[in-house]
Each structure stands twice: as C-alpha cells, then as structure tokens.
Design brief:
about 325 residues, about 30% helix, alpha/beta, 6 helices, eight-stranded mixed β-sheet
C-alpha cells in the first residue's frame, strides 16, 4: 500500500475547489450533500452522498478512499460526480475520527504517527477478513440503491490506492456494477499487500471469487508506481482475461503513485497531465456505460485540474468536444 514517510507532510492544507462546495439538504444549491450512515457489525459509519436536487434517479458512483480513509477530498469527489450528472457516494470504511485522516502542514510528528497507526490498523483489519470486507462494501451498494435520488440498478465505483483494490474486489465478488475505475490502485487482493504488523500471524480469511463479468474495468496507473510492479500487471491481465472481462489499462509515463490525489492530501504525487487524462477517461467510460444519462460539462475536477474538454453523449455515440 502507499506508505508515506512519517516526516512527509503537505506544504499547504487541502482546500475544496469552490465549485464543488455543496449545500446541505436544507439550503438552495444545484447539488446537495447529506450524511449517509451505514450500520455494520455494530458500528455506525458515516459516508456522504451528493446529488442534484429534484433530478431524475441517476446512476450511483461509489467512491473508495486510499489507505487514510474517508476525508474531504473523497467527499469532494462525490460532489464532482453529482456535478457530472450522477449520484456520488463517498464510503466511510474506518472507525477512527475523520479529523485525523489527513494530517496537514501544522500537524505534529506525534499526530502523524497516530494517523498512520490508526489508518493501517483499520485497513489491515478489513483485508484480513475478505468475506466480511466484501460484505461491508456490498452494504454501501445495497443501501445506496435505496436512496431516493439513485437509479435502482445502475452503479459504478472509483477508488484510490487501497480504494482501487476495493473496486476490483467488488468485481471479483460479482457485485452488479457497470464499471469500475482505479487510480494508482492495488491490483490484487492477496495477503502480500498487507503491511506486516509486528503481531500479525499471517492468518487471512479468504473469499471465493464469482466475478462480475459484465463490469468494464479501467485502470489508471503511474508507470513509476513502485507498488504496482510488472508482475502485478501481468497477473491482473491474466486474471481478467480468464474471466472474459472487458478491461483497459492506461499507464501514464514518468508518473508516480498518488498522481490523482489533490495537492494538500497526504501521500500525493499529483501530476496534472495524468490526473486530467485519467479524469477524462473516467468520464468517457461512464458516458459509455450510462448512455441514457447525458454527462454535464464540468471544467475542473476535485484536484483543481482544468479538464479542457468535456464528453458528450449522443445516443450511444461519444465524442470529445474541445
């Protein structure tokens, strides 16, 4: 997984893009955002759901965060998806406080150390029990589909680093998704991806794979990403091909892990070109799998990257308009 140095901190704090600041449900805004509580195994997790007021039911896009867990950047991605014309649901998978999930330039070394300890403990706990982990993600999908703004059947997912693994494990499980997109995501769900804890005895509860063979898979990868070696790429391709899954692998040259995380997010290696291209690839894929829902033009994504073009649905045809 992405393991930043404890001494590494953003030089500036993360700030939401002004066009992605949504209102609460009681205010007037084109996009509103609401807490989305999910009870699972005796604990209440609070995701955030974003959608356009008064619109027809739209496809659901699940957003899975990186190792750090749900934070403002992921919530802003949900708002970005709503601006595009979908319903974004940023999924909270962790129990430690959201205020501790993105240490900033003023955080102490002690605070950063507590962040890493909490984040990796949460992540490893999920990865060690794969059936429970997949059931947890499926709960977000099931409950998300029950929201009044959400289409009953159409859904997709995006994820960053560990969140990319979340998306792929949903495909492996066989959840009914039209598409998934991973950004600098982990490609396998095997125990070798787990950070070895001092007291970890190696016990993993595996889950059987049933595969969602109709789900389109898009991988946005940095060619210099040290956690995605060539053997992992080859294994991923062989796995998808064995199931007849429609996949695409975009490998961005001279690009490191963390390229799609906004400036101000811990562990970012933001790359403007790779972020722009991966965002446009994502929009194009969603336009392809949800052709009856026209993409709304949005000029800037949650990283603040100017997209420079937008994707237009014309029936089942797609074109990029400069």
């Amino acid at each position: 997984m992405c393991i930043p140095d404890e001494d590494e901190v953003p030089t500036t704090p993360y700030r939401s893009q002004s066009h992605l600041v949504a209102a609460n449900a009681s205010a007037e805004s084109d996009v509103i955002i609401e807490p989305f509580p999910v009870e699972f195994n005796g604990f209440t997790y609070t995701g955030q759901i974003a959608y356009k007021r008064g619109a027809e039911k739209k496809p659901l896009i699940l957003i899975f965060p990186n190792y750090a867990g749900l934070k403002q950047f992921d919530i802003d991605q949900a708002v970005f998806m709503a601006k595009l014309g979908y319903v974004g649901l940023a999924c909270d998978l962790y129990m430690y406080p959201i205020e501790e999930r993105n240490p900033g330039p003023d955080s102490s070394k002690q605070e950063r150390g507590a962040h890493f300890a909490s984040a990796f403990s949460e992540m490893n706990g999920l990865l060690k029990d794969q059936p429970n982990f997949r059931k947890f993600m499926g709960t977000y999908l099931e409950l998300g589909r029950q929201h009044s703004a959400v289409h009953q059947t159409l859904a997709a997912a995006i994820g960053y680093c560990f969140g990319g693994q979340c998306c792929l494990d949903m495909v492996r499980h066989g959840f009914n998704l039209s598409a998934i997109v991973t950004y600098h995501g982990v490609l396998q769900s095997n125990p070798s991806n787990i950070l070895q804890e001092p007291n970890f005895d190696g016990t993993i509860i595996p889950a059987p794979n049933n595969y969602a063979t109709n789900c389109k898979v898009l991988i946005e990868n940095g060619d210099l990403d040290s956690i995605v070696p060539q053997k992992a790429i080859d294994k991923f391709k062989a796995e998808m091909d064995s199931q007849g899954i429609d996949w695409r692998f975009n490998n961005h040259s001279q690009t490191k892990h963390g390229f799609a995380l906004a400036p101000g997010v811990l562990s970012t290696e933001y790359d403007e070109d790779a972020d722009r291209r991966s965002t446009l690839s994502t929009i194009s894929l969603f336009a392809e799998v949800f052709p009856e829902f026209p993409v709304q033009p949005v000029s800037t994504n949650a990283c603040g990257t100017e997209l420079g073009q937008f994707i237009v649905n014309t029936g089942y045809a797609l074109k990029a308009r400069l």
